[in-house]
Amino acid sequence: MRALVLIIILLVLASVSLFVGVADITFADILNWNIEKIELISISRIPRTAALILAGVGMSVSGVIMQQMTQNKFVSPTTAGTLEAAKMGLLIFIIFSPMGGTTVKMISAFAFTFLASILFLTIVRKIKHRNVIFVPLVGLMFGGIIGSVSTFFAVQLNIVQDTNAWMMGDFSSILQGRYELIYLTLPAIFITYLYANKFTVIGMGEDFSKNLGLNYNAIINIGLFCVSLTVSAVVITAGAIPFLGLIVPNVVSMIFGDNLKKTLPLVALSGAIFLLICDIVGRVVIYPYEIPIGVTVSIIGAIIFLLLLLWKNR
User: Fold this and answer.
1) What pTM does this model have?
2) Which of 92, 224, 243, 264 has its CA 20 to 30 A from that of 200?
């Protein structure tokens, strides 16, 4: 029933997203078969809405995986250096293979994201006292170091603008033929759902997982693969989207509990709904201009994140 309600909300918001924008498109245009307006919807509005939904689902699910792997509710791609690692991968792509295709770009971003995630988990394991706030702070510092190194080389090579462009989430340039890479999030989401129960178990600790006969390291690697694939595809397609993988899983967990098998669809749907709302707000608040979704998500996400911190420390 809960999932059905969220699906209905998602469909309503997706429909609104198709008709919101600078170009005035109405439902009557479709009924009257206005070719120009229909082409605009198929080339721009439908790809944008699909990308928003997939990005919302993928980033939210990635947040759940990272929180289970680190046993910390405040860890996500935003607070673990994952987004900055994807930026470094894109920087390497620009430096060494600027004429390379999308495949090379994806491999570069994925490789650096995967390696940085492994390094972050290694650092977390070395921390003896895993305070709920201390671990994400370590992740923020880790991401800051990666981002600083990337910025240094970008400044030296005079490509700061090129690299910074990837770090601001923006769906305004999504067009047919330029967003399909984001469909790589689908297999990652599917794998996550298949391993949902196992991710729940590893969230209880390494010793507990091994006592139940799970191959802890194998499950961790599967989780890292799913997160790296999703984050890389989203960053390449639309740029970095902060806080999404942090706030949505926490809100869903607070309301519906921590049974991942049951809550994962709710997390996925809630992430897509949240991103659609932020995008629609960004398109109408200073109409006919548009606020990048990275800004709207950051503002709303930061407020919710601070509220979560205050609530956890009560």
Assistant:
1) 0.88
2) 243
